[in-house]
Amino acid sequence: MGGMFHPTTKGILTGRIVGLNNSINITGYILKVGKGNIEIPDYYTSPGIEYYIGFGTGYELGQKLRGLLEKDTSSQLSLDKKIECFSFLLKRQEICKVNLTTQSFLDNIKYWEEFTISSAIIDEVQSLIKQNKTQRAIYKLISYFKEKFYLKALMEFYEIYASLEKLRAEKRKNKEYFTGEELEKIKTEVLTWIG
């Protein structure tokens, strides 16, 4: 995360995901889990009122998003899978590593489960892998999935990106860390995806 969010903003972001993943309204949720069980991030020193206000607002937004996904008939994905995919999108948006707009994905739910990669993209990714430009190959596929609104594929492929980021972080901590075997595994996974 690039920095700390204001407590209200953080509450909205968290509440939105929690609301999306729950079928009960905010009052029912608070009665079920109790206000004391809504976890406030450790770095906030205030009593949490601003966070709770944001959480309630976010929860209501999440409920509205859930309603949109429940009403959708353009995709064959189950409601649970739609919620899982959209929760992924919201989490990625919060982290701000990947610029993702939620409305454009909501407008294109029918493409979420699609998975067709153009031959031009396949050729480009293969070329990048051969040149040992694994990170660029991964970014190319992530961008492609985003542009096509292939949210399910993006969510699943993101695990490969996370593996590469973990490997790079380990290399930064320990310059002598040998990445060869793990990097080859990641390259193989990328090539399997474009199959």
Describe the structure.
- This protein has 195 residues and is mostly helical.
- 68% of the residues lie in helices and 0% in strands.
- The chain has nine helices and no strands.
- It has helices spanning 7-20, 26-33, 49-71, 79-95, 102-106, 119-130, 134-148, 151-173, 180-194.
- α6 (119-130) packs antiparallel against α9 and α7 (134-148) packs antiparallel against α8.
- The longest helix has 23 residues, at 49-71.
- The chain is flat and about 55 Å long.
- It starts with 6 loop residues before the first helix and ends with a helix.
- 24% of the residues are buried.
- The mean pLDDT is 90.
Unreliable residue stretches: none
Largest sheet: none
- Gyration radius, in Å: 19 Å
The number of helical runs is 9
Principal-axis shape equals flat
Let me know the average pLDDT.
90
Structure summary, number of beta strands: 0
Note the run of SSEs as H and E: HHHHHHHHH
Quickly describe the structure.
This protein is mainly α and 195 residues long. 68% of the residues lie in helices and 0% in strands. The mean pLDDT is 90.
Considering the chains and any ligands shown, give keywords for the structure.
195 residues, mainly alpha, 9 helices, flat
